[in-house]
Batch of 4 targets.
Target 1
Amino acid sequence: MEIERLLSECQYAELRVETSSRAAITIKDREIKQSFGETTGISVRVLENGSWGFASGNNIKELISKAQKLARLSSGKIKITRSEPEKKRVGTKLNITDTTEQAKPLMDAEKLMRIKNITSTIISCTDSTLKKEYYNSLGSEIIQESGYTYLSCSAIARSGENIQRGSQRSWSKSGFDKLDPYKTASEAGEKASKLLNAVAAPKGRYTVVLDPEMTGVFSHEALGHACEADSIVDRESVLSGKIGQQIGNSMVSIVDDPTAYDFGSYTYDDEGSKALPAVLVENGILKNFMTSMETAHALNLDKNGHARAQDYSTVPIVRMSNTYFQKGEFGVDEVFGINSGIYLKGMKGGSVDIFSGGFMFKAEEAYEIKKGEKGKMMRDVTITGNILETLMNVECVGNDFGTSPGICGKFGQEVPVSDGGPHIRIRNVAIG
C-alpha cells in the first residue's frame, strides 16, 4: 500500500488519520445554543537521528517531507521501544443524535433543576464520534472507531448573599438515549439547594472519609499525574526513583486501566501500542508508571499504551485513562466507624504540585461524622496535604466502588478520563 511504502522510506515514521463528528447543545437559563462540526485531518511524526519531527495537515507526501526536515534540524538522544507490527480493526461505528432530538428531554431535565432557591442553570451535552487510523513504518495498520456522549449539569442557588453551586455529570458510549438526563439534572439542583443550609467548615486536623468520587479524584490528581512517565524522566515528580518503595499503607492499591469499560477506555493508544492496565501502587508499594514508547525506553520499563493525543493535530503525550483506587475488605459502615470526623463528597476543584507532592482539594459537599453517623452538612471544606504522607495515613478501605467521568487537561490537550474507587478513611488530614 502507498502509505506503507512512503513511511518505510523513513528511519521510523507514523501516520495518523482522524475523522470526527461533534454535536453540542448548551441550555443556559432555558436559552438553547446548538452546534455541529466535522473534522478530518492527518499528522505525521518522524524519528531520525534521535529527534522527532511532527507535521499535521491534509497532504501525506508533503507532511512526511516536512516532518523529516524538522527531525533533521538537529540530532538528539531519543530512543523508543518499538511494537511488533499489528493489523487490527476495533470498536463500533456510532451515530450522533441530532441536537433537535436532545433539546426536549434536556429542557424537561432543566425544569427538574429549578427547585427552591435555584436562580440559574446550565446543561451542556456533547455527542461525538471518532474514527482513528494509525500506520507506521514497521507495517502496523490499526483502525479504531468510538464515540461518547458527555452530559454536564450545574445549578446556582441563592439566598440573600449566600450563593452555592451544585453539579453532576454522566456519560454514555452507546448514544444519547442511554443517558438519564433527569437524574443528572435533579442531583445538580438538589446539591446546590442543600448547600445553602450548610454550615462553615472547621479548621484543624481530622480523620476524614472520602466518597468514591473524591477517592477517584485524589487517585487521579495526587497520584496519577505523579505516575505519568514523562514527569519521571524529567525528574519533576515526587515519585522519581521510588519504584519498589513503600509509599502508602498496605491497603493502598491503585491502577490505571484503559481496558476497563469506562469513559477513558481505548484499545490502542496514539502510538499504536496495545493499551494495558498499569498497576501503579500495589499494597502500598510503588510498582510502575504509565509509559509511552519513548519514556518506556528511557526508564527501562515495558510499554503499557498510555500515549494519547487530543486529536490528529497534536503529538501523543503520556496520559491517564481510567484511574482506580482498588476495593478493600471493609463494609461502608465500618469505614464510617469512628467517633468523630468529616465526610467529603464530590470534587469542587483543587491543585497538585507533583514535584513537592503537595495538594489542595475542595469538596463539593461535606458532613460531620459523629459516632459513625452522618451529621450536619458543611460547605467550603478544603483539604491540604502531601501525597506520600496522606497515602501512609489511609487506615480503612471500603468494599464498595464507584466511578465518575471527566475531561483531563495537560499541556493544552484534553482527553476523556474516568476515576473512582471505594469509600476510604484517612487520619490526620488538614482541613481549612
Target 2
Amino acid sequence: MESQHIAPSAALKFWKSESEAVWLYQRFAELETNPSLADLYRRLADTEVSHVAFWEAKVAAAGGKVPEFKPGASVRLKAWLARRLGPAAMVDAVSGVESRAAGSYDGVADAEAVGMPKDERSHARVFGYLSRSGKGLGGDDVARFEGRHKAGGGNALRAAVLGGNDGLVSVFSLVMGVAGAGASRSQILLTGGAGLLAGALSMALGEWLSVQSSRELYQNQISIEEAELAEIPEEEKAELALIYQAKGLDQATAEALADRLLSDKATALDTLAREELHVDPAELGGSAWVAAATSFFLFAAGALIPTLPYLFWSGTAGIVASTVFSTLGLFGIGAAITLLTGRKVLYSGMRQVLFGVAAAAISFGVGHLIGVGLG
C-alpha cells in the first residue's frame, strides 16, 4: 500500500492508543517485583512516550487540541487485573494487542519516517516472548517454573499420541457403525481398511501442508531478519537486548550480550532466528516428508487395533474382540498423554476409554437403527 500522511483525526486516535500503552506499561513497572522486568516495562513505556509526543505535535500542527488523557475501560481492566493477579497474568492479553498494533503504522508516511512500525513490531516480539516463556517470568523464575513441568519430547510425542488416537477412535467408531448395521465380516474388514487408508492419507497430507507452510513462513521471516540486520543493525541489537532483559538479565548485561553476539556476522542471523523467531535455521521446524510419513503410520497403527480382530472373529465375537482391543488401546493412549499433562495414569487412561467407547457406542446404535430401517 502507498504511504499516506496522517489526518488530524487519525493522529488523535494514535495519540490515544500510545498514551494508553504508556499508562499501562507504567502500571506494570510499578507492580512488577522482578527488577529486570520492571525496568523492561519502563523502557517500553519510554519508547511509547516518544510516540505520544510525536502525535501531540502532529495534532497541534494541524490546528487541533489534545484532550486530557483518560485511559479507556479495556486498559483500566488490564491494570485492575494486573494489580490483583500480577503483571505476568496479563502478558497474553497485551501480547495480542501489540501483535495487532504491529501493523497499524504500515503505510503511514509520518510514522514510517520515524521508525514507529519497527518499534511496534519490536514490542510485539518482546511480549510474544514473555507470553511463550513463562507468562512474563524472567531469569531464575522461568527456570524454576519450567523445572516443575514435564515438557520432554513435547511436539513429537504430542503428534504421536494424537495420530494414534485419531486412527483408533475414528476407525473404531466406523467399524462399530457398520457392525451395528449387521454387515458381514468381509464388509467390516473392507470398511475398516478403507477408513484406515483414507484417514492415514488425509492425516499425512494435512501434516505435510502444515509443516511445509511453517517452513516457508520461517524462511520468509529469516529473510526479513537478514535484511533488517544488514539495514538497521543497531535497532536489531536493541531489540535483542530487550529480549535478554525479558529473560531476566539487567540492562547493561543484556546490551553487552547482544553486542557480542551480533558482532560476529557468522552467528548474528542464527542468534536472531533462535531468540526472536524461536526457530533453528538448520531445521526450520523439521522435514515435511518425515512428518507426513510419521502421521500416516501412526494413524494406520491406531486404525489397525479395532479392525484386526475381524480377521479371526465375526458376529458378536468380533464386536466384543474389537471392543476389548480398542479399550486397551485407548487406555494406552490415555496413559501416554500423561507424559504431556502430568495427570495420573488411571485417570487419563479411563477418561480416554470413556470418550472412545462412548463414540463407538453411539455409532453402533445409529448403525443398528439404519440397518433395521433398511431391513
Target 3
Amino acid sequence: MRTHDFAVIGGGIAGASVAYELQARGSTILLERERLPGQHTTGRSAAFLVESYGNRTVQRLTRASRLFFEEPPPGFASRPIVEPRPMLWIARSDQRQRLAEKTKLAVETGAELHEVDADEARAMCPVVREDYAVSGVVEPNARSIDVAGLLDGFLRGFRARGGEIVTRAEVTGLERIGEAWEIACRGDRTHAGVVVNAAGAWAEVVGGLAGARPIGLQPLRRTVITFDPPPDCDIRRWPCLIDADEDFYLKPEGVQLLASPCDEIPSPPCDPTPDDLGVALAAQRIQRATTLEIRPIRRHWAGLRSFVPDRGPVIGMDPERAGFFWLAGQGGFGIMTSSGAARAAASLIVDAVLPSDLEASGLRPEHLAPRARS
C-alpha cells in the first residue's frame, strides 16, 4: 500500500505541472492511465503564449506563467521553452466591432496590442487576401510554446524532486476513508490525503468515482492539418494568423504550415480521430482568407479541448468531497496557463490561498472554484 500526501490523476500538462509544484510541498504520486504521459490533448496541441486569449481569469493565469516559460529554473529544459511568434488577429468588415471589444478586454487586463490596417497586416502575412481582412490587431509579445519540452521539463523536475510516476494506471475506484482517499488502480491501492483531478477530458468520470457532483465539463473535438507553403516562400517570420471570430488559425510549423478550422464538435472522452468534414473545413476557411492552395494535406489529427459552460478553468477543492481537488476545464489554454494554474492549485491545496502575484493581479479563489466561478 503506497501512502502519499498528494495523488494527481492525469499525466497531461495540468497533472505534470501541479505534481511538479506539489512535490516541493509533500510526497506526491502521479497516476497516468496511458503508456506515456501527455498522450492525448497535451501531445496534440499547437500551443501559444497569448495574453489576449480567453476571459480575464485565463489572461491573468497566462500572464502569471510567462516568466516561468521565458526564464525556467536551471536544468528545467535543454532548449528554450518559448520562441517569439507575434499573433495577428484579422477582421473582415463585419468583424471589426467584435475584434475591438476583444482588444479592449485584453488591454484592460494588461496585454500589449497594436491596431494595424489591412496593408500592415498583409506586410506581416503576405498571403492574406485583400478582399478578406480590412483591419487587424497584433500582439507582438506572443510566443510559440515547445509543448514536448515543457511537459518533459515538468516530469523530469518532478522526478528529480523525488516524485513517483506510474503509467498504465487507470483509476477505477476512489473512496474516502478517514482523513485520506483510497485509490484503486492497476490492481494496487494508494492512499493520499488529497486527490487532484487533472484527468482532462475524463475529469467528470474521475469526479464521478469520487462521488462529486458534475461540473458541466464538455470535451470538444478540434481538427488540425499541416501542408506545404508555396514554393520559395519564406514563412519563418510569419505570425500566427487568427480570425477575429476564431474561425481558423494558421501558423508556421517547421518547414510546413499548420492550420485549424477551430471546430468544436461535442465528444465523449476518447482518443479522437479527425473526420473528413473537419479536414475539409480547415482547407476551406484557410483558402477563403488567404491565397494559399492546400494540396496535398501532409498530416491531420484531432484532439479534445474540454470546457465548462463559462469557459473558465476549474481550480479548487470540491465543496462536498473533502480532499478532492479539481484542476480541469482548461479548454484551449491549459498549456499557456500551466505554470500559473499549477502554482495556484498547489497554494490553494496546501495554504488555502493564492500566490501573492496572482492575488495582486486581481484573481481570487472564488473565480476558480467549482460551481462558484464568476
Target 4
Amino acid sequence: MSNSETPNSKLIGQPGSRWKLLTPALILDLDVLEANIAAMAAWAKEGGFALRPHGKSHKSPDIARRQAAAGAVGLCCASLREAQVMAAHDIKGLLITTPLAPGKAPLVIDLIKTGGDVAVVADHAELVAAYGAAAAAAGVSLDVFVDLDVGLGRTGTPSADVAIELAGQISAHPALNYAGVQGYMGHLQHVDNHAERRGRLDTDTADLQAKVDALIKANLPPPVVSGGGTGTHRLDAEYGSLGEFQVGSYLFMDVQYLTVQQSAADDKPYGTSLFVQTSVVNINHPGYAVTDAGLKSFATDGPFPIIACGAPAGASYRYMGDEHGAIDYGKASDRLGLGDKVECIAPHCDPNVNLFNHYHVVRGDTLVEIWPVAARGNS
C-alpha cells in the first residue's frame, strides 16, 4: 500500500465513498485489475512465455509490484523518467524500450551505478557507442537489445544487415552485453478484426523472423526476442517468434481496445478497470448536462469516452472545452441532477493516466487506497 495524501484521502474505507469523491478523478477498479493481471500471467505460464509488461500504461510502482508478484520478469519503460522512478522503487528487470538521445546515456549509467536493474535498446551505431563509452567510464556493464523495425516505421534498424552490425558492436564492447532483440508491432495492436490482424501479422512476423534468422546465421543469436502487445499477443504466440511479451493495456482495457477481437470468437479475457469520474455542474440546458471533466481529463487522440454508469441509458459524452464535458441525453425526458456522478471508460489509457496525479483505487463502491501516478511526466 502506498496511499497518497489527497483531498479524497479522508474517504478511504468509508462505505459508498466511491461516489463521494471530488472530481474529476481517475478510478481504478482493483478487483478487475487483479483479475486482468492473473489472467495474463496464467496465459503466459501456460504458453511458456516471459512477461515484461509495459509500465508506460500505468506509470505506477504499486501496479508494477503486483505484476512482478504474478510472475513478470521485469517491466518495460518508454522513457528515462519512467525507468528512474521505477528503479527508485526497486522495480527489477527494467527495459527502456525507446532508443534515447545519446546525451542521455550517462543518466542511464547513473541508474545502474545506484543499483538500478536497467537495460536499453539501440538502433544506431552512435547510440551503441554512447552507451559503451558511458558504461566503460563508470566501470559498469549495460545490457543492450537491438531494436528492430518490423513495420512500425518509427524506431528500429532498417535491415537485417544493420541489426547484425549493431549486435556485433555490442557483443565486441567490453562494457556492453548483447541481451537480445526487440520487435514491437505497434501498428497492428488496434487492427480490430481478428482475421485482418492475422493476415498483416503474417507479413511482419515473417520479417521479424527473417531478421532473427540472419542474426543466428551471423553467429549472433538473440538470447531474448521481446515484443508483442495487448492487441496481438495471442496471435503472436502462434507464430513462435517471440519469447517475451511487452503487453500493457490489458490492465485497463480502454475504449480503443474494447473493439479489438482477441480471438476469432471475440472472447473477452480482460475486463475494463480504468474510469474517469466526473460530476454534473450545470443542468440549465435541454437535452444535455454539463460536467467538470473536459479536454484536461481525457486523452483526446482517439474516440470519445464511453459512459459506463451514472447517466440515463443511451446517453453519450462529448467535450465542451478544457474543463467541461457534456452528457447528451438519449431521450428528451432524461435528466441528471447537480452533483450527480458519472463514470466514463478512458478513451486511450496511456495518455489518460498521464493526465492525473493519482489513482482512486476502489473495490465495489468503497475507496480502498489512493496510489500516485508516480512516473507521469517526461525526462
